[in-house]
């Protein structure tokens, strides 16, 4: 019996371990506005089968329905970061990166449940009357498409040889060439299409030995430095830096249709005018001016208004991001009030997600009617408007409180269970035995009513 219980426990643990396996999924399309900025909110969350099906719904509603599915044997999000550099003139993911950046719509899901990808092809066939075509890598360049009915092309990429970094990079580069050739063939024929690139199971990327031996705090610091692809935007008052601003993703959507990604313009190419920014001891305004963005938005101005005040309750100064304003093409200024973006004056403020959605850690609340037409999305947001030293962010006050909902649930559950245990022990301690007992061989015991 004990052996059966042990086997059952191991089976449950194995199922739980397998259930957390996930793979990345890249989606891009020549159709515009398939996914808005809120759809990219999946950091730290594993996309389930039902959630994936909801994200794929916009692909099925387009007039021109041509879908390309690239399936690989193993893939993980670490593959894109670990093999992002060139290896002996090999450029892994070169075409994939360019296609994601140049496509009209794109979506990157860093973690999708393996069960969802295992049944992905079956779900696609059930969702619509597709003409399914399996393509060999040698037939990619001479692909012919009949657009009279929906088409789905399945390309099973070659397995990845993971003997060493060089062989792995070459395998990824070869698959990347196949992806580029097929998409180029479709573009030359003038066909509107959507692409899904994923794998059947996750891969395991070994860590470098010198990193593994470091402490956990050191490991987190090392990985954070690698992910920072650009420097923060710094505003000077003539002599020193007075405002620092950073975001790994900074994008806006106007009227649910016009999307503008400001990340590259703000932090990489620096094609933004911030000369109108103002700094003082009590107030700071970060003003970002963009020109010639996209069709529908020519001139765009974004202002972050911050103040610094002394609060008697805490006996120190605090800085607060009071509001955010967006103006474009001489239209009415969209004004947002800001929730919980504040920190001690000597600190910076950091939040993983900031925007107009109620799911974000810090929310931008529309303060007028014009603001309701805008969707704002900032990931890894960090800002500091006062007391900046050495052109670097100070210690960050994060938007996530110490007592998260999960911690509160655990505390309340523990208190209830502790109360039940205490009550049970108290009741057991109150139990007493009878002072008199019947003797089955003697005369029956008689207890007077007065006792």
UniProtKB/TrEMBL annotation:
Pfam families: Ac45-VOA1_TM, VAS1_LD. This is ATPase H+ transporting accessory protein 1. One of its GO terms (biological process) is regulation of cellular pH. InterPro entries: Ac45_acc_su, VAS1/VOA1_TM, VAS1_LD. Its main location: membrane. The keyword Nucleotidyltransferase does not apply. It is a single-pass membrane protein. One of its GO terms (molecular function) is ATPase activator activity. Belongs to the vacuolar ATPase subunit S1 family. Keywords: Membrane, Signal, Transmembrane, Transmembrane helix. Residues 1-19 form the signal peptide. The chain crosses the membrane at residues 407-426. It comes from the Eukaryota. It is found in: Membrane. Residues 401-439 form the V-type proton ATPase subunit S1/VOA1 transmembrane domain. GO terms for cellular component: bounding membrane of organelle; cytoplasmic vesicle membrane; endomembrane system; proton-transporting V-type ATPase complex. Residues 241-386 form the V-type proton ATPase subunit S1 luminal domain.
